[in-house]
Amino acid sequence: MSLYLLFDVGNTRLKWAAVESSQKPSDQQKKLWAYSGSISSKSLQSPEHKAELADYIAKTLPKPDAIGFSCVAGADAIDNLKSLFPQWGDIEWKQLRGDSSYEGIRTLYQDPSKLGADRLAAVIGARALSKSNTLIINAGTATTIDLLGSNGLHYGGWILPGLGLMQKSLEANTAQLPLAVRGDAPLGFGRSTNDAIIGGCDAAQLGAIQFAIDVAKDLNHPVERIWLDGGNSKVIASEINRLGKLKSLTIEPSEGLVLRGLWAWLLNNP
Ligand SMILES: Nc1ncnc2c1ncn2[C@@H]1O[C@H](COP(=O)(O)OP(=O)(O)O)[C@@H](O)[C@H]1O
Ligand SMILES: CC(C)(COP(=O)(O)O)[C@@H](O)C(=O)NCCC(=O)O
Fold first, then answer.
1. pLDDT tens digits along 188-215
2. Where residue 76 sits, what CATH number does that domain have?
3. Distances (CA, A) of 143 to 111, 125, 137, 155
4. Which atom of ligand 2 is nearest the CA belonging to 258?
5. Which residues are designated catalytic?
6. Pick from 126, 148, 173, 259: CA 20 to 30 A from residue 137's CA?
7. Are 262 and 74 in contact (CB under 8 A)?
8. Residue at 16 is within a domain
């Protein structure tokens, strides 16, 4: 049995998972990963955190047979990550980039090398799970919304500030707005500053999803499935449910869609 180790280096968090060759990226069961974890991406910059993490990984993870990763957090983050594993110098680190190829998927991005590697990985992960017209939402530092057609074409997508960034930018760039705190605000227009900010940012995220569904329909690729991943996915899923909109579509939370895509890509590029 082989072991594959996967890293998704995001702007806020570094996520990893190890998976055994007895499993397939198309498997949907919950217990997919043999090992998984996440830490703040910033901790890769601190020598103490790095030493701690290296020690933890060395004690818990057996040596993998292959390593795949994507990184949207800059070249230093890659160097810092690799430096955690001096003992695995003989393993090739395979980096998925925006212009990496994957059989059955083609992007319409004008310059695919500029496409976020995590977005391509999530698209590949979604393709492994279903061959229908799919919206892929990664609600992390930024929220990305991508359309993948049943024909395997990535029609492009949108990048908007993630929920946290939206809220923080209001606090940072105004005199009167606080950093809002999510509570149990009633639905509808906010009747306090806090509720107006939380509700407004939620509306921007949900509105973008609704608009993406409309645009996909206009492109004759009506959305059949929606995969939702990222640190803000639970909040967004719960707001969608609370609002009772988008009822005709199942929004499926899919933790680790980027990791799943990396895994599928690694298997395709042994
Ligand atoms: N425990 C947490 N740690 C960090 N961010 C969190 C946490 N819970 C929710 N978040 C939200 O999730 C975002 C990070 O999500 P994630 O999918 O890991 O992003 P990225 O891939 O950009 O690193 C943060 O910007 C924050 O808004
Ligand atoms: C849009 C992103 C910042 C999202 O990063 P994340 O929120 O996952 O950390 C990242 O995918 C990226 O840097 N993309 C490059 C530009 C593009 O995709 O067009």
1. 999 999 999 999 999 999 999 999 999 9
2. 3.30.420.40
3. 20, 17, 7, 17
4. 8
5. 118
6. 173
7. no
8. yes
What's the CA angle centered on 258, arms 257 and 261, to 5 degrees?
85
pTM: 0.96
HEC string of 10-79? Answer: CCCEEEEEEEECCCCCCCCCCCCCCEEEEEEHHHHHCHHHHHHHHHHHHHHCCCCCEEEEEECCCHHHHH
Least-confidence region, from 94-98, 122-126, 156-160, 243-247: 243-247
Distance CA 146, CA 101 (A): 17
Which ligand has the nearest atom to the CA of 113? 2
- Determine whether the annotation assigns residue 15 to a binding site: yes
Same domain, 239 and 157: yes
The interface pTM score, or ipTM, of the predicted complex is 0.97
| Same-domain pairing of 180 and 243 | yes
Q: Is the same domain home to 153 and 228?
A: yes
- Residue 237 CA to ligand 1 center (angstroms) comes to 15
- Verify whether ligand 1 is closer than 6 Å to residue 141 (CB atom): yes
Nearest CA to ligand 2 atom 12: 116
List the domain range (segments joined by +) for residue 160.
131-255
